[in-house]
Backbone:
């Protein structure tokens, strides 16, 4: 077989963690090879080794059959390996051209000459239909375009082996389609492509072969046309996974929560981060807010929960104006909040689990007497939640939050919020970065809350999550709500159009 | 584990005896006060005197630095010195007064020399000097007199005085300074300007912006020399003098000419000489403790530095005049008034000077 | 049976108090101490060599081996007497360290401990001189006033941070100087000066921290300051670990955003935290000066040497004690011990400042403690995995996963 890259028996440990344990990965010329696995399975580590960012503890890398040593990204460039990182490595205040040529600028008498480079970029752009203005500044273009810049950067360096690390995470459905076409173009040009992903639908759509990793080990490499999503999922997780969410029809009761013309002005950027946002949540329903990252979701949640002061507008909870109430008041009234950033807001990482589980309720008579904490009650409370929510950690209630896995940290937060029995649960990115197993569990819990008659406001960047869970979908674009959709009647394509601002709708807001 | 700890503790406790069996002993000991041994002041002066005597007479000598500035720490350092074999302990500065008060009875066989102070209890209720203690004070009024005399001979006839605090030693400096200046003015028959406004006790030895402001104001009002018997506050006067032209400061205790170019001369206390004198008496079998001696010009206890170069063209004349008046004071031809205003008033009257306001300032009513 | 259980429980409690659960966290401090002492001995050796080879000439030749024994024997050199002296010196250091460490724990860098100590000392001395009260109450009242004054001084910094967003480091450095000059003014303005010198009068005998324990320690010096410091350590330990107040303060310290998210009043917590830190520093200042034969000097040099430096030592103590109250106790004792050893170096003709050299090196290494700790941990794990517990580690890791 004609392999362009072979990584044989690669091992790599970080401390006690075996990130890659005897992994063999072989890339054929002209194929699209998907590398799948859950978070922490070792995908990024493996590709970072290939790109020269890490060095394997043991194992061999062969390039076109010959053993090579890749010490740094420059070696990788020399072997025509290019990589688009999940987090782009671009200079905001440089133009597209400047970013692409960065590190290999042409000079004449010590002066930079960009003309040749610019022409070359335009050529590549036409060839691969990667439309982007070479003179635009990075800070002014969309995330999708920034990704194209990263791709052009690889092409400009004549890369033949292209690695994409989670390329669709930040894209709208339309942009994803375009990207898939681009990847097929590359394949037709004879380039070899690796896609790192955990989205199996994409694997099925574009890949020829697929290597599955689980907990640092290689589970196997399969031909995509021989398998289906279920088989891949089972390989990935190690057990059967059901993608169908058992969702009962919503039993919507009365209005619980309402915002009126919420606005937040950002004086630094001189624009509104949140602009005239009005919507409502009723008991027994999940309202999902979809949108591309950075369109005001974070700010909207911050002003609703009180982490930030709003510029104008009103917030009502059970017909009471709570706009000016303190965070604690809002919590006491019955609002639960699963924060977007579990490390920044959700947990005190240096506290143990039991202390984290009383973060909002430590002062209640349940947990204190005359200012002294009731340690026994706090432990009982923790052990109860650990049992009920299946939170796993090394030392139970006294494990430091920092030592727990992401999934269990998130479970702890969810346990805490749900156990406070809020009437409105605001869940922001509740499954970000989690394993399929944990995602499944958290989705179940959120649905359970809804079925118990609670209102849920779900804000997520994962369109799948919004589509599967929501009873109503609101789309946010540049701080404004641009559409209200029924998940049963809409499609990914339609939402995508709203998310990217290509289409604007009018919201029938009921007051 | 516990056994190991116990063993460790025992081992450490057994080290107790080490102090007693330190190989070397030192007969002459000095305990330093708040500054270091190289403070260019009392510590250093005393130490240099001790060294000079000890090397000449082949005695062992050593200094001890207390762990902090407190009576307890001073006492502890004295303890250490005695354990180190000290036969005579010399302590420079009045901060030792309370510690020596206690130590002199604790160690009756050890001799103590307290320079510039007299032993008393912390609340000043009891003063007592045992037979094994010798207190050395200085005739500050004599060196103040020399300074005032020299400055007027140097052609400076508008003078001022900064006292740190209104305590006897500082008062003596000021009274001598006034007396010397008027004495010289009388000899030369020049007019001397010394108003009561230009004679002050700052209330602190600390350099402060206020002290500097006061000095500047005085210089602007025509004062050309300020005698700064005010410890660290002297540097405030020096800063002010550096800003003016032909404005000068007289330093105190040690030769301060190195501190500032504006220091024209200094009123020296011979702490080194005091140490040498006490050691000589002790080793020659002439120890005569239980009293306070005062070292004046005659005993070499006070003087001006030998370098008169900052008097410029008048240097030679000033030096000659100083030497002449020094001899007169040593001989007792001139009796310099000490720290009471009556004797100053009497002295000035013999010169035909009447400056009652200034005399009143020199020894104010005691502060509450 | 019941009695036995009680004893067992008590012992467990004592153990928990003095052996922090993260006992291995103290490892870097011990490494730092080891490096510091080695460095000190090395320096002493170099000095010795330079003298005996004739490069330097000194009045009295240093005695290297004798010096080492003196240094290491520290506070044990003169038996009970020097143990007492060490404990006496340790009390203000422990309190300063506790003040800085407490603030650290709650996410604040209280570099203003020196100023809070100055204010505490000044007010305590004022009460000690001017107020007339019967014996046990007088010193307690003076101490209390000193604590309140220090607390207020800390509170000002906290309020500046919470309400006006002035960084506490900047504010507290400024407040140190404000404290020093205010103290000068206050002492002069209230005629607290001893007429013959540049320091304050002695405090009344009733206002002195009791010397009840001193007979045990060979006569003078030792007062109950160390007992008061230990009480403060226990109180702070309880506040931090057993109360809702400590819970909130730590939460804000570890993660301000999460605390805000959870509805805590972060601004109020900052002010409370700085005030408590100030109270501890003020207490240290008061204990330092409610002593016979100890006076506050109104000169910048002396104030800096006596009061400011103890306050800054608090940072070292906190660092060495890992900002843990019990850690501060041990670190303060250690610092006093090594300084006492430095003092005895007088006997071997070394400068007492050798102890400061050692302390400085220790602090440098403590500051690198995270790196050192990581190093130690890596070494240890390697060792472990080489021996037997490979499987155990694997199991632990698995336990951490979903």
Residues:
């Amino acid at each position: 077989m004609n392999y362009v890259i072979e990584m044989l028996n690669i091992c790599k440990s970080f401390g006690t963690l075996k990130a890659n344990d005897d992994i063999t990965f072989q890339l054929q010329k002209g194929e699209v090879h998907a590398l799948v696995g859950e978070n922490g399975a070792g995908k990024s580590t493996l590709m970072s080794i290939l790109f020269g960012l890490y060095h394997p503890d043991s194992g061999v890398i062969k390039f076109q059959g010959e053993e090579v040593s890749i010490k740094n990204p420059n070696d990788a460039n020399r072997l025509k390996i290019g990589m688009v990182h999940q987090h782009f490595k671009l200079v905001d205040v440089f133009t597209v051209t400047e970013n692409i040529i960065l590190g290999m600028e042409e000079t004449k008498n010590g002066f930079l000459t960009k003309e040749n480079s610019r022409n070359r970029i335009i050529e590549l752009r036409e060839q691969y239909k990667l439309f982007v203005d070479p003179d635009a500044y990075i800070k002014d273009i969309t995330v999708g375009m920034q990704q194209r810049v990263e791709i052009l950067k690889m092409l400009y360096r004549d890369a033949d082996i292209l690695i994409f690390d989670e390329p669709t995470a930040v894209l709208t459905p339309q942009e994803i389609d375009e990207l898939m076409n681009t990847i097929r173009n590359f394949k037709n040009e004879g380039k070899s492509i690796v896609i790192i992903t955990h989205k199996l639908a994409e694997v099925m759509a574009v890949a020829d072969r697929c290597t599955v990793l689980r907990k640092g080990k290689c589970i196997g490499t399969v031909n995509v046309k021989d398998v289906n999503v279920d088989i891949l999922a089972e390989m990935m997780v190690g057990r059967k996974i059901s993608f169908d969410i058992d969702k009962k029809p919503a039993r919507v009761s009365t209005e619980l929560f309402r915002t009126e013309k919420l606005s937040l002005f950002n004086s630094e950027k001189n624009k509104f981060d949140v602009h005239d946002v009005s919507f409502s949540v009723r008991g027994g329903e999940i309202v999902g807010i979809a949108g591309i990252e950075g369109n005001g979701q974070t700010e909207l949640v911050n002003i609703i929960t009180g982490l930030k002061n709003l510029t104008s507008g009103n917030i009502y909870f059970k017909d009471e104006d709570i706009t000016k109430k303190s965070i604690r008041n809002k919590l006491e009234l019955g609002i639960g909040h699963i924060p977007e950033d579990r490390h920044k807001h959700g947990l005190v990482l240096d506290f143990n689990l039991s202390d984290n589980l009383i973060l909002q309720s430590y002062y209640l008579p349940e947990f204190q007497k005359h200012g002294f904490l009731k340690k026994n009650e706090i432990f009982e409370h923790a052990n109860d939640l650990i049992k009920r929510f299946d939170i796993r950690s090394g030392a139970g209630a006294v494990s430091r939050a920092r030592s727990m896995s992401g999934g269990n940290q998130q479970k702890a937060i969810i346990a805490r919020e749900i156990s406070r029995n809020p009437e409105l649960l605001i869940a922001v990115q509740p499954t970000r970065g989690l394993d399929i197993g944990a995602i499944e569990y958290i989705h179940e819990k959120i649905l359970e809350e809804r079925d118990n008659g609670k209102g849920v406001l779900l804000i997520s960047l994962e369109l799948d999550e919004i589509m599967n869970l929501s009873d109503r979908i609101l789309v946010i674009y540049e701080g404004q709500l641009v559409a209200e959709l029924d998940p049963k009647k809409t499609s990914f394509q339609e939402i995508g159009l709203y998310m990217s601002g290509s289409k604007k709708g009018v919201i029938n807001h009921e007051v | 584990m516990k056994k190991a700890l116990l063993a460790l503790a025992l081992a450490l406790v057994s080290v107790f005896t080490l102090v007693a069996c330190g190989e070397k002993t030192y007969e002459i000991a000095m305990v330093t006060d708040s500054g270091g041994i190289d403070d260019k002041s009392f510590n250093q002066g005393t130490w240099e005197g001790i060294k000079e005597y000890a090397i000449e007479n082949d005695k062992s000598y050593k200094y001890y630095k207390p762990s902090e500035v407190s009576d307890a720490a001073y006492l502890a350092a004295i303890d250490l010195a005695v354990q180190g074999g000290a036969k005579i302990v010399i302590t420079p500065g009045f901060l030792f007064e309370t510690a020596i008060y206690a130590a002199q009875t604790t160690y009756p066989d050890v001799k103590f020399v307290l320079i510039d102070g007299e032993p008393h209890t912390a609340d000043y209720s009891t003063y007592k000097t045992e037979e094994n203690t010798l207190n050395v004070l200085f005739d500050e009024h004599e060196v103040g007199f020399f300074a005032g005399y020299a400055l007027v001979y140097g052609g400076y006839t508008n003078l001022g005085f900064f006292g740190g605090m209104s305590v006897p030693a500082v008062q003596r400096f000021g009274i001598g300074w006034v007396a010397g200046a008027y004495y010289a003015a009388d000899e030369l028959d020049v007019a001397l300007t010394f108003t009561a406004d230009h004679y002050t006790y700052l209330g602190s030895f600390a350099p402060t912006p206020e002290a500097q402001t006061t000095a500047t104001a005085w210089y602007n009002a025509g004062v050309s020399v300020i005698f700064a018997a005010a410890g660290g506050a002297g540097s405030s006067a020096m800063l002010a003098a550096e800003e003016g032209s032909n404005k000068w400061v007289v330093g105190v205790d040690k030769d301060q000419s190195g501190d500032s170019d504006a220091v024209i001369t200094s009123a020296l206390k011979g702490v080194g000489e005091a140490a040498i004198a006490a050691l000589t008496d002790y080793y020659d079998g002439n120890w005569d403790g239980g009293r306070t001696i005062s070292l004046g010009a005659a005993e070499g206890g006070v003087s001006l530095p030998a370098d008169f170069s900052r008097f410029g063209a008048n240097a030679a004349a000033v030096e000659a005049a100083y030497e002449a008046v020094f001899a007169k004071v040593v001989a007792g031809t001139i009796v310099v008034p000490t720290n009471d205003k009556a004797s100053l008033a009497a002295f000035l009257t013999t010169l035909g000077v009447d400056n009652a306001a200034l005399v009143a300032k020199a020894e104010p009513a005691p502060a509450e | 049976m019941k009695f036995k259980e009680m004893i067992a429980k008590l012992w467990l409690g004592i153990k928990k108090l003095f052996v922090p659960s993260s006992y291995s966290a103290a490892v870097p401090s011990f490494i730092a101490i080891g490096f510091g002492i080695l460095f000190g001995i090395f320096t002493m050796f170099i000095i010795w060599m330079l003298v005996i080879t004739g490069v330097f000439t000194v009045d009295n030749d240093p005695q290297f081996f004798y010096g080492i024994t003196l240094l290491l024997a520290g506070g044990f050199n003169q038996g009970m007497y020097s143990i007492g002296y060490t404990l006496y010196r340790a009390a203000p250091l422990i309190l300063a360290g506790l003040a800085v460490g407490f603030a650290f724990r709650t996410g604040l860098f209280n570099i203003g401990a020196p100023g809070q100590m100055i204010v505490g000392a000044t007010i305590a001395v004022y009460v000690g001189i001017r107020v007339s009260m019967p014996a046990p109450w007088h010193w307690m009242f003076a101490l209390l006033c000193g604590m309140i004054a220090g607390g207020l001084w800390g509170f000002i910094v906290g309020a500046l941070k919470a309400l006006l967003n002035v960084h506490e480091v900047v504010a507290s450095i400024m407040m140190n100087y404000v404290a020093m000059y205010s103290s000068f003014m206050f002492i002069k303005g209230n005629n607290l000066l001893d007429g013959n010198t540049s320091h304050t009068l002695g405090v009344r005998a009733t206002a002195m921290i009791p010397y009840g324990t001193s007979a045990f320690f060979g006569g003078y010096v030792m007062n109950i300051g160390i007992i008061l410091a230990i009480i403060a350590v226990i109180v702070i330990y309880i506040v931090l670990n057993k109360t809702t107040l400590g819970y909130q303060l730590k939460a804000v310290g570890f993660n301000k955003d999460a605390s805000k998210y959870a509805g805590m009043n972060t601004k109020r917590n900052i002010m409370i935290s700085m005030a408590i830190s100030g109270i501890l520093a003020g207490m240290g200042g008061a204990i330092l000066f409610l002593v016979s034969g100890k006076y506050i000097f109104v000169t910048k040099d002396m104030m800096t040497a006596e009061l400011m430096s103890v306050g800054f030592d608090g940072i070292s103590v906190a660092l060495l004690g890992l900002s843990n109250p019990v850690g501060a106790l041990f670190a303060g004792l250690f610092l006093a011990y090594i300084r006492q050893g430095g003092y005895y170096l007088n006997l071997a003709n070394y400068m007492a400042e050798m102890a400061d050299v050692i302390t400085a090196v220790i602090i440098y290494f403590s500051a690198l403690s995270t790196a050192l700790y990581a190093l130690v941990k890596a070494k240890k794990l390697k060792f472990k995995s080489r021996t037997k517990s490979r499987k155990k580690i694997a199991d632990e890791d698995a336990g951490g996963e979903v």
